[in-house]
Design a protein that fits this description.
This protein is mainly alpha-helical. It has 9 helices and 2 strands. It is 72% helix and 2% strand. β1 and β2 form a beta hairpin. The two termini are 45 Å apart. The structure holds zinc ion (ZN).
């Protein structure tokens, strides 16, 4: 069990609460001893915290290596097994993801260029106009992973209907790709989406992702947790007037985006669980 976070105290109210009583001898001794006591308590607390920080990291590190390694190995094995057909499918899944951004941007009334393909990396869409506010940016950001997830789900359905394992391999890789893109890091789609979420929704989302990580240890979920920690703190700081206007998102829009974002993360984790092909099975083909 980790120690509860320190309570947030309201700032002291201005005003006069009456003159302090004259200090007695005992009070003077307390004044002298109090800092020593505080230092002692802090040392104890800090020591305890260090233990709490180090133990989860030590516990998680092998999980990161194991699950992260498994995912990348799986995708590598698929590429070796199906070669060019897997590559074609994977690029198509990236294209579907990018198309999702394009459709979302169009729906928001933004001018967009045609998708530009980068060999081996995928595709980008160029926005000819910057999103006007955080709500539009979040919608454009989530459009890609939403359509991308649908594309991967269609691959899984084709596998279920036909038995072709290539489609299951593509489904897994597609779920992986879209989950990775939802990590709340600046340059990924997740980074664009989370600016529309309130810090309080982040606290809820953090708990959801933490629960999901404990239930299904997953490399990307751990990355999401690590990268969202600084964001949790930065979102609480005071914003300038211009920033505040940009971040103006109605409570309804915030709730909608939070449900879509955290719901999509959960769906993608479930999708990866369903579509994963154990390597023994793969080798036996
Ligand atoms: Zn994207």
């Amino acid at each position: 069990m980790s120690p509860p976070p320190p309570p947030i105290r309201p700032p002291p109210l201005p005003g006069n609460f009456g003159p302090p009583p004259p200090p007695s001898g005992w009070d003077k001794a307390k004044k002298f001893l109090a800092p020593l006591g505080v230092v002692g308590v802090l040392l104890l607390k800090f020591g305890a915290k260090l233990k709490f920080i180090i133990i989860p990291v030590a516990k998680f590190f092998p999980v990161i290596l194991k699950t992260g390694g498994t995912m990348i190995l799986s995708i590598g094995a698929y590429a070796m097994m199906w070669g060019v057909w897997f590559a074609v499918g994977f690029v198509l899944l990236i294209f579907i993801h990018e198309l999702g951004h394009l459709l979302a941007a169009r729906k928001c009334g933004l001018k967009v260029g045609a998708p530009v393909f980068i060999p081996f990396m995928g595709a980008i869409i160029a926005l000819k106009e910057a999103p006007r506010n955080a709500w539009i940016e979040a919608q454009v950001g989530i459009g890609g992973p939403m359509l991308g997830t649908l594309g991967a789900a269609v691959c899984e359905m084709i596998h279920l209907a036909t038995g072709y394992q290539l489609f299951r391999a593509l489904a897994y890789s597609g779920f992986f790709l879209n989950l990775f893109n939802l990590a709340p890091v600046g340059f990924l789609d997740g980074g664009r989406i989370v600016t529309a979420l309130s810090p309080w929704l982040w606290v809820v989302g953090f708990a959801v992702v933490l629960g999901l990580t404990i239930a299904h240890p997953n490399f990307i979920l751990i990355l999401i947790l690590i990268f969202s920690a600084p964001r949790l703190f930065s979102l609480f700081r005071r914003k300038s007037e211009a920033e505040r206007r940009y971040f103006e998102v109605t409570p309804g829009q915030r709730a909608t985006m939070a449900i879509m974002y955290f719901g999509l993360i959960a769906l993608l984790v479930i999708g990866m669980q369903i579509s994963h092909i154990p390597r023994e099975t793969l080798a036996g083909r």
